[in-house]
Amino acid sequence: MSGVVVDQTGLPLPGVQIEVTRGATVLTSIVSGSDGTFSLPTPAPDDIVNATLDGFERAHVPASRANRIVLEIAHATESTTVVASVLTSSGAAMETLGSRMTAQLAQRLPEPRPRILQSLPLLPSVVRGPDGLLRIGGTRPHESSLWIDGFDVTDPVTLTSAIDLPNESVKGMAALREPTAATLSGTLGSLASIETLPGGDKFSAGVQGFIPRPRLSNSYGLGRIEAFFPRAYAGGKWKQLHFFGSTEFNFERVPVPGVTDRSGSPSTGLTGTSSFFRVDLPLSPTNLLTVESIVAPSQATAVGLSPLTEVSAAPDILNKDLFVGVVDHIVLNASMLLTLRVGVGNHRTEVRSSSRDTAIFAPDGWHQNFFAEVQDSGVRRAASATLDKSGITAAGSHTLSFSVDLRERSMTGSIETHPIEIRDDLGRTVRFIATAQVPSLTADDTTPGFGVRDLWVPTPRLQLDLNVRADFPTHESAALSPRFAASYTFENKAQTTIKGSIGRFVGRVPLGALAFDQLGSRVDVSFVPGTGFVRRAFRPSLGFLNLPQADMTSIEIEHRLLPTLELQAAFRRRIGFDLPTIDVSPLGNTAELASTGTSSYKEFAVSMRQTWRADRELFVSYVRSSSLGDVNDYGTLVTNLDTPLFEPAGKAPMPTDTPHRLRSWATVQFPLEIVVSPAVEWRTGFPYSVFDIYRHYLGAANSERFPNYFSLDITAFKTFDIIGRKWDLGMQFFNVTGHFNPRDVIAVAGTPQFGEFTNSFRLTLGGYMRVRW
After folding, report:
1. pLDDT of 217 strictly over 50
2. CA dist list (Å): 462 to 90, 456, 499
3. To which H or E segment does residue 572 belong?
């Protein structure tokens, strides 16, 4: 027989210990797979299936009704050594299919880097843009956030994050599309949440990735080291203390089509380390203290290098992330759990240009130098207290949550800008931009808030999730965000479930936006043949800013055709308003940043998952979506505190708008311990804008599109027994069909190369190695 284990919200639970007993005899003992499924030898109807997972109440189910086991969250027990997962408390309407990724599954699927967030685009509605940043459900990178163990770890200056953890540190990851829980804040509708791995009862340690990956293409320097990701981890128990730590060294040199030659140079690269450490210490039987830290310095070289950006115009960017978080779980009584969190994070960025020369922007791209050097440091401090009260009975059962939190952010920075010359195809200067220097930038804010949640279960089939949250920032007006979600199961066997949510989400303003009026004024001169020149001056100013907000509605139907075959269809709509947007006048004068922007996102998605057993599954999804927003949205236009051009613009498709996207992947284990995991993506090409010779928009922004994107990637490996360990050795193949997927286009109308697409990878090979300790 086959079955699945889920939590109260319908999310599948991997890693559940399942035992089949007959009287006092244990007949079978297995662990549920990455999607919560399990398979058992046909038991007798009177046999008992026992399901156990840390953070949940133990379940005892007769074998005749074990095709779907629901585990209740253990909010409070006699001991706090088990605490419910952060990933399972996002709301009643969280989708079952395509929302979660376990580290075990991520390791099997084809991704060039062994990190959990690299696998996120395998999920529906998660798109990686040309800048390498993720868009979850149509939210722009600065409108979403990354949470690790309940802490927001995004950079407060830009609201993006460079933190990523090695797979060995991660227990699971989820893309929360409607995080209705009032304890979650600072997002316009979607976020990524990672739960880390605590140390086990027995000591375990290992190393991975210690074999460098050479380049296997003669076009880009055959045999040169392309990537090296050695990492080590260790975890276990010392007396009552559980510990886990991991560290990874990252070395990567990525060739660029049309730029990198047979010597292997030039190329864009990344060097850095990522270290994670976690300690869980029971202070008493009812008090569990967790301390964790992340240290992640890195240096990216020749960022943005492409056929349209030469080496001298591609900057080096140094990032350094430091984070320390403390969580204290205190059981007050048999039905009350108090969770205290305190976290401090610091993100530093330094953008280095190659010289002090003028940056040249020609029809064929950037030359000579980058346009700005930037240094900034952002600090985020947060503290929260959440009280969960379960066991309340009134027209059903209730679990009440009360939370208060205080978030404080501050930044310091400086910018040194370089003049910009815009040239035509004959090399003549047609436009010149110079910006006044800025000795320093500062900004800070404090936002207290509170939230109330009632997870109400009137009947076993119906679950209601009622939430209200309020935030009181120092620089903006207070914002109230009510949210409601519901889930109803039509049949006792949970064959069909309908879910829905409606509510308001409140985001944050990047600290860089609060310092916008501190930027230097710029002089913009255009040279018009036969008439002289046109001079415009822009003085950055700051209008009134509100917290950005969005109203979201979603409805979803899930149907289980068979115990191992699930279908899902969902519709979502999100309307954003009060978004920080730069108003640029065609005549110059001021460039005002104010909360005048709006956005809209609509999505229809269907997904299917077929699971044959824990190591064999197929996932297919199709998403039809539309995303519109202001071109001069602050977080999109301004990266690292500055932008080269101010241009008047209105609304247009967002830079990663993808009306059609098909995503599919599978993992299959064959005899002789051979595993093959293919992944396919087909989508509409990203939009781009057409410009005149002065780099003014020619027609509407983002009115043209790249060719449709298609890629077939495959990971294939075989397990070998070497020196007493299981070694997974194999190959990874990216863009197997060699499809033309350009990432750049010459978009200046009237030039000889106008409309020429470039920068596409053909078939790329890589090695795969994992040791199972």
Report:
1. yes
2. 17, 9, 10
3. strand 565-584
| Element counts in the chain: helices (H) and strands (E) | 3, 49
How crowded is residue 755: how many other Cβ atoms within 10 Å of its Cβ? 12
Q: What is the pLDDT of residues 674-699, one digit of tens each?
A: 999 999 999 999 999 999 999 999 99
Q: What is the dihedral of CA 199, 205, 207, 208, to 10 degrees?
A: -50
Least confident of 49-63, 544-558, 636-650: 49-63
- Smallest CA-to-CA distance from 152 within 388, 405, 400 is with 405
What six digits make up the tokens of 326? Answer: 């403390």
Contact (CB, 8 A) for 40 and 20: yes
If we measure between CA atoms, which residue out of 228, 187, 233, 226 comes closest to residue 206?
Answer: 233
Would you say 525 and 541 are in contact if contact means Cβ atoms under 8 Å apart? no
Q: What is the 3-state secondary structure (H, E, C) of 246-290?
A: EEEEEEEEEECCCCCCCCCCCEEEEEEEEEEEEEEEEEECCEEEE
Residues facing residue 431 across a β-bridge: 422, 526
167-to-16, 115, 144, 209, 271 alpha-carbon distances in Å? 19, 5, 22, 12, 18
**How many Å apart are CA 456 and CA 716, to the nearest integer?**
46
The pair of structure tokens assigned to 249 is: 């060294």
Ranking 68-77, 339-348, 617-626 by mean pLDDT, the lowest is 68-77
Of the candidates 70, 150, 79, the residue with the CA atom closest to the CA atom of residue 337: 79
Cα–Cα distance for residue pair 708/77, rounded to 1 Å: 54
- Range in 24-33, 224-233, 480-489, 535-544 the model is least confident about: 24-33
Separation CA 696–CA 6 (nearest Å): 54
**Contacts (Cβ under 8 Å, ≥6 apart) of 261:** 220, 221
The kind and range of the H/E element at 525 are strand 522-528
Looking at residue 65, the DSSP 8-state letter turns out to be: G
Say what the pLDDT of residue 11 is: 60
Phi-psi category of 152—alpha, beta or left, where left has phi over 0 and alpha has psi -120 to 50?
beta
Residue 397 CA, chain-centre distance (Å), reads 34
Q: Is the pLDDT of residue 186 over 60?
A: yes
Q: What's the length of the chain?
A: 773
User: What is the residue-wise DSSP string for 148-204?
Assistant: ETTEE-S-TTTS------BGGGEEEEEEESS---TT--S-SS-EEEEEEPPP-SS-E
Going through 42-109 in order, the beta strands assigned E by DSSP cover: 48-52, 59-62, 68-70, 100-102
pLDDT at 12: 65
Give the model's pLDDT for residue 494: 59
Total-model pTM: 0.88
Of the candidates 493, 626, 614, 499, the one whose C-alpha atom is nearest the C-alpha of residue 568 is: 499
HSE, side-chain direction, 13 A CA sphere, residue 763: 11
Q: Which amino acid is at 35?
A: D
Residue 131 · residue 162 · CB < 8 Å: no
How far, in Å, CA of 764 to CA of 220, rounded?
Answer: 11
Strands 532-542 and 589-613: parallel
Q: Are the beta carbons of 431 and 694 closer than 8 angstroms?
A: yes
Question: Per-residue b/e over 154-193, b at no fewer than 16 CB within 10 Å?
Answer: bbbbbbbbbbbbbbbbbbbbbbbbbbbbbbbbbbbbbbbb
User: In DSSP terms, which residues pair with 597 in a beta bridge?
Assistant: 579
Instruction: With H, G, I as helix, E, B as strand and everything else as coil, classify residue 442.
Output: strand
The amino acid present at 461, given as its one-letter code, is R
Per-residue pLDDT at 34? 56
Beta pairing class for 744-745 and 549-562: unpaired
What beta strand segments (E) does 363-495 contain?
A: 365-367, 372-393, 397-417, 420-423, 429-435, 438-459, 462-471, 479-489
